[in-house]
Amino acid sequence: MGSRHNGGASDRAALGNGGAPPVVDKEVDFANYFCTYAFLYHQKDMLSDRVRMNAYYNSIFRNKHHFHGKTVLDVGTGSGILAIWSAQAGAKKVYAVEATKMSEHARALVKTNNVEDVVEVIEGSMEDVVLPEKVDVIISEWMGYLLLRESMFDSVICARDRWLKPNGVMYPSHARIWFAPIRSGLVDRKENDLEDVIDDWHHFVEDTKDAYGVDMGVLTQPFTAEQRRYYLQTSLWQNLHPNQIIGTAAIIKEIDCLTASVNDISEVRASFSSPITLENTILCGFGGWFDVHFRGRKDNPAQQEVELTTAPSKDAGTHWGQQVFLTHPPSCVTEGDSVSVEFLMYRSKENHRLMEVELSCGVRQSSGNLLPPFKSKFHIE
Amino acid sequence: MGSRHNGGASDRAALGNGGAPPVVDKEVDFANYFCTYAFLYHQKDMLSDRVRMNAYYNSIFRNKHHFHGKTVLDVGTGSGILAIWSAQAGAKKVYAVEATKMSEHARALVKTNNVEDVVEVIEGSMEDVVLPEKVDVIISEWMGYLLLRESMFDSVICARDRWLKPNGVMYPSHARIWFAPIRSGLVDRKENDLEDVIDDWHHFVEDTKDAYGVDMGVLTQPFTAEQRRYYLQTSLWQNLHPNQIIGTAAIIKEIDCLTASVNDISEVRASFSSPITLENTILCGFGGWFDVHFRGRKDNPAQQEVELTTAPSKDAGTHWGQQVFLTHPPSCVTEGDSVSVEFLMYRSKENHRLMEVELSCGVRQSSGNLLPPFKSKFHIE
């Protein structure tokens, strides 16, 4: 056989548990997900994300009143950075829960940063951990691509419902998902790549018939489908330039972290229309991103609200980038045209931490003329 | 958080089940391993490997007497190619066992190639499958990197002990692992890459202290260890040029597929000395590869023996390539010098399909002078 190891998201499809409800095998979940966070190079990636770091740092130190003398729970503490900051901001006690062995590094950091009297690192999954008390603040950096990939907010909800005091505060307090039409050179490239792969397949089928007397033709259709999914139906990580946004961005989901239920976030359904704001450009697809806000709560607001946005930016990209969904073929649009979009995102049946997106859109030109509609399914992996 | 999905071999280390004996959770094994083989692009890779294809094709069609009118079991049939060839060579019945959904494609191939009366595709793991009869031949392409990675031969042994007739034949019948000293530009590159990553880490530690008041210095040692493992202690996939081999290659393992037990293959221990055969060159490490032979059995030999070798070759590379183990620093050697090697390979505790290698070597110059010895642990992932 001989395969480079590529365990991974879409691979789980091999289990093919078709229409069955998502079953979460903890061991498999660990092999597929948590493991990623057990590597320091990955922690370093996140700790080097200035936008991310500044937002959390400012949200804590500009709102010390939320932390001073308070009890804090950090869900998925990783290296422990948010727990340490919370302690430095005056927290009385910080419970830092981490599912992976990263907990050992967090413990070391807590010690060398002299907050070991305040921060207690607990290795375990949030769903299983038992705390000796309820907390005033739950802080967590739980956001995945397009906000909800990784489904980690489930653990934050679980923590909130079990351990947050009735008047407790969530950090962050609010989250939003954005979606906007974009232009991009990627469509042509991906379509060409796909074409090359399929051409190559046809030669392979011929060669195999000639050299080895076996006709592989019957696999052309499933191979094409598999490659189509890979090249055109899997969303792409991109750091878009703001000038690639060609229409008005729409908010397709708003989450109040204090009240949202797993039900509220396990499906995102949006229907909106976006005016094209650029002259004579090409609609190549859509970009999706998120922002979160640190506002405290109505009866205990932040002294200074902080925003963390992963929107396209000339100079302040994040490790989240944006998720790009390519529409094909691209269509010529111009100012005055309008793109109507139907968006549906839900969790993959094979892996609840991955997402599937059903996207359809149509362009109404200023003339009233309608361009042929686009409809496709995408996978966020 | 925000992570590209990178489930993968080394990730399993996150489970950190330390000294515990390998426990195989079937679901995890599927997520980590079998899944890979459920993709047609990967099957195509293997089906496009001419060395691999020609060897199996010739082994079957130049030894039809082993197949004509016989019952055959194909372990891990994948696309079904070996099963179809066996039928075309005159087999009376072929059981083609496949653990993944690839079985459905195999079924389609079997049908369109008009051997559905002979080939029965069975989806399931070899350990669980029950056949209605014993077979005359077991054929399987079970070889992983350095032969034993993937530990798939275990399933062939299980199939053999349960389903092969006393006088049955194994395809392939024999296997060997080779090891040889090499020169390569990779050592310098990898050492420089590691240096850059560590430099970058030091800046990161400074920045984090200055900008965010947290001292990460205590993680420098574990980060260095993690990156050292990645850059210098993980074997590399390479298609070596024969002129990179600078000493006599040694056989470090021989397997008789008819008699080998799981015990025989779960550890490879070798101690050998390899004369340097090039003048004024640099010992940069070692290359490992394998070959398998199709000889039938003593009392029922092949009419024409066939060999499948993955040795370094100018023009006949395979998708297996070779596994390269870098020794550092490189040492100058020349004809007349001799490298003594102690090699030990065993299965990873975290994932029984991956391998760990303990390698030590020393160079005795023709003058009798000994160069400083090298000793390191490697991971095959």
Automatic annotation (TrEMBL), chains A, B:
Keywords: Methyltransferase, S-adenosyl-L-methionine, Transferase. PROSITE patterns: SAM_MT_PRMT. Residues 192-361 form the Protein arginine N-methyltransferase domain. GO terms for cellular component: nucleus. The keyword Hydrolase does not apply. Its EC number is 2.1.1.319. Ring-like homodimer. This is Protein arginine N-methyltransferase PRMT10. It comes from Linum tenue.
